[in-house]
Design goal:
The protein has 304 residues and is of the alpha/beta class. It contains ten helices and twelve strands. The strands form two sheets. Strands 1, 2, 3, 4, 5, 6, 7, 10, 11 and 12 form a ten-stranded mixed beta sheet that branches. A two-stranded antiparallel sheet has the order 8-9. Bound molecules: S-adenosylmethionine.
């Protein structure tokens, strides 16, 4: 669930995004990814990723051989996070024996020039821009923005017929297992919070972004050429341990629900929320908690 974007500190949030990497690796829809590979322009494309966070997608796409050379722009509203991303990618490259050089506005990773752009998306779209992108990526971001308002402007950041890959868009369904009597009350309140959220002075996402994207893309003249589910499925191994740093990922999800709802007794009974959180934390510590979030991926071309 990409709307879970709160953490008390940048380093806590950066750790959450790093912990999310293995969850996203499993979740990303492989048929939509195959379509992206077909659509990917040859040579040295210019890629723009909005809401790029720590930049883990660059590492993944290099690992998966989807990008190799050209330019990759990471745009995010969080400057501290972008600073972390520079070092994270540098370390990521060092671990793989890939040459990387830190530069004033980003870094060079092998043949790929990574550039960091600090901007809030709505303001960025209102300003004039130079070179257009060949490929536009948004991972775990579109459920944090007002899609119908920004989608036409977003697609104009692409060259005509340019490629988009919009992934991990939340779609209104979260499952925590085993079941708890207050599951529905808590999740309905959380979805309402998503639907009414304001960030950067603008409406910021909704709980059914995934399914609504079919229509929004069609209306913007860029219908999906491929679409499919990219559900997060997080569960413990036989030894009751979660893989990689996924226990931290789950804890961050619980904390985000807590932060969104703890002062909203108009939406959820405080005693119910407290009990729900306590039980979920105990299940997490015992390696019993399973979490599933329904999300969707899309690939296609901009109009023209
Ligand atoms: C859930 S995180 C996803 C980060 C990254 N794409 C990933 O999947 O690891 C959402 C990111 O979008 C950024 N973001 C949210 N709203 C934004 C906006 N209006 N403009 C620019 N960035 C935004 C946040 O700062 C955060 O880094």
């Amino acid at each position: 669930m990409t709307s879970f974007d709160e953490a008390s500190t940048t380093s806590g949030y950066a750790r959450y995004l790093a912990a999310k990497t293995t969850v996203d690796d499993r979740a990303l829809n492989r048929q939509v990814l195959a379509e992206l590979r077909c659509l990917m322009p040859a040579g040295t494309p210019r890629v723009l990723e909005i809401g790029a966070g720590l930049g883990t997608m660059v590492g993944r796409l290099l690992d998966w051989g989807v990008v190799g050379a050209g330019e990759y722009v990471l745009l995010d509203a969080d400057r501290k996070l972008l600073d972390c991303s520079r070092q994270w990618l540098h370390d990521w490259a060092a671990e793989r024996g890939v040459r990387s050089d830190l530069l004033p506005d980003g870094l060079q990773v092998g043949d790929l020039r990574v550039r960091l752009v600090h901007a809030e998306l709505g303001g960025y779209l209102e300003a004039a821009h130079g070179e257009l992108a060949d490929v536009l990526i948004a991972n775990a971001v579109l459920d944090l923005v007002d899609v119908p308002a920004i989608l036409p402007g977003l697609l104009r950041l692409l060259v005509p017929g340019g490629v988009y890959w919009f992934t991990i868009s939340y779609d209104g369904e979260s499952i925590f297992a085993p079941g708890h009597p207050h599951d529905d009350e808590v999740m309905q309140a959380y979805h309402r919070d998503m639907d009414e959220r304001i960030r950067y002075g603008r409406p910021a996402g909704e709980s059914r972004t995934g399914r609504h994207l079919f229509h929004h893309l069609q209306a913007a003249g860029a219908p999906a050429l491929a679409a499919g589910s990219s559900d997060w499925v997080v569960y413990p191994a036989l030894d009751r341990k979660y893989p990689a740093d996924e226990a931290y990922f789950l804890l961050s999800i619980l904390n985000t629900i807590r932060d969104a709802l703890q002062n909203r007794q108009d939406r959820v009974e405080p005693a119910h929320l407290a009990d729900w959180l306590a039980v979920r934390r105990r299940q997490l510590a015992a390696g019993e908690l399973v979490y599933i979030a329904h999300q969707l991926d899309f690939a296609g071309r901009s109009p023209g």
